[in-house]
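Training component of the fellowship. As part of building independent skills, the fellow (R.M.) carried out the full modelling exercise for a liganded target. The chosen ligand was 4-fluoro-L-phenylalanine. The inputs are recorded below so that the supervisory panel can assess the work.
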Amino acid sequence: MKGKVNKTTRGSFATTFGIIAAAAGSAIGLGNIWKFPYEAGQNGGGAFLLIYLVILIAIGIPIMMAEFIVGRSSHKNPVGALKEASRSATGGIVGIMGVIAAFLILAFYSTVAGWTMHYVYLSVKNVFAGLSPEEINLVFKQFIAGGYAPLFWQAVFMIITVGIVLLGVEKGIERYTKFLMPLLFLFLLILCVRSVTLPNSIQGLKFLFVPNFTAINTQVILNALGQVFFSLSLGMGTMITYSSYFSDKENLTKTAIQVSVLDTIVALLAGIAIFPAVFAMGLNPAEGTGLVFGVLPQVFNALPGGQIFAVLFFFLLVIAALTSSISLLEVITAYSCEELNITRKASTLWGGLLSLAVGVFVTLSFVPIEGLSSGNAIFFDFLDNLTSNIMLPLGGLLIVIIVGWIMDPKIIENQLRVENPETNIFYKTYRLIIRYLAPIAIFMIFLSSIGFFK
Ligand code: PFF
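Fellow's submitted model of the complex:
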């Protein structure tokens, strides 16, 4: 049988909890625990957090709702769904851009997820016990510059991702997220308690929560925008894909708020676990991509039973990364299977393989290779920037324009269960945001980041 599926055979989530777990599973991942702290650390701490929260509420949540509306009203993959919402074939281009973004994100996501797997292994071997902060940092630097081990773990991670997607929507996604994510949450809480009880931790809390307004510039705002999109899995059709499996009973507004709040809490917990420890140990908050991998082993060292804790924590982080990576691959699979008429199995396989092929170069960008790579992660930074700061916000901008200006308002009212659109304040505010505020804000951030207002 070819990959064509119709509304009744493509399946749907069985329970409300399953829906939130899957959407939150996509949102919560390395973006919260690895990327948020390193972005906050490089972009002024409290100032970054403040802008992040403003963008989350004003732009992020409304766009997540817009993606839910597009997905559930069509029950299709992002390309088909956006064609339907925009009432023209050109709308599908936005979906295709999303599929490309999914490829590229998966390419570097698997690199970092591979690092996390290696850290499970290193923790099992108790490598970090008794090491000084400098030595722990060195372990990370030598590992990523080594080449073979990161490539090996990246491939393992990709194989597992492909394997889960091959099992299908319900079994593949719902089953694993339900109980492991609450456990990760609990572990993060314990890490926070340990971190804030370290000497000098108050400095770290101040760094994260007290905004220094002089640190705000256009790059910080663009990075915060990109982080909102990356962390909430927005702007590339992931949430369109997931909501295409939602049942009609689900309240989209409530789900969008629940997912966003959970996602933000996890990022904040990660920040609280990291920054007090960074300051307690005299490290640099602007360390970059290695921040979490350099700091967390030190917090584990300061915990009784730290080794077991470290093993379990990095394991759970791998699971969190998996629930995000399967959502990335699902975008590619659903598209290729429903639009290109390739079987689901083949779609998943070639999607994973192609992304891994690009991912190999991402991993190698950390390895100094004569005449080929400086080892300064130029390709990694390029992909990260291109996807988070350009492709996702651009995708979000176009989605919100389609929903705000082109889609039949009746469908939106229906999806949001609005009965009197003329008098409903919530709905009127929502229309205002998606028609004016969100698109104009994203556009202005783009313009200012290319120096337009200088
Ligand atoms: N939101 C995920 C995270 O924070 O780790 C990453 C991600 C998943 C981004 C899916 C985009 C996406 F479509």
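The panel noted the following from the submitted structure. The pocket of 4-fluoro-L-phenylalanine is lined by residues 26-27, 29-32, 105, 230-231, 233, 236, 238, 324, 327-328 (CB under 6 Å). The radius of gyration is 21 Å.
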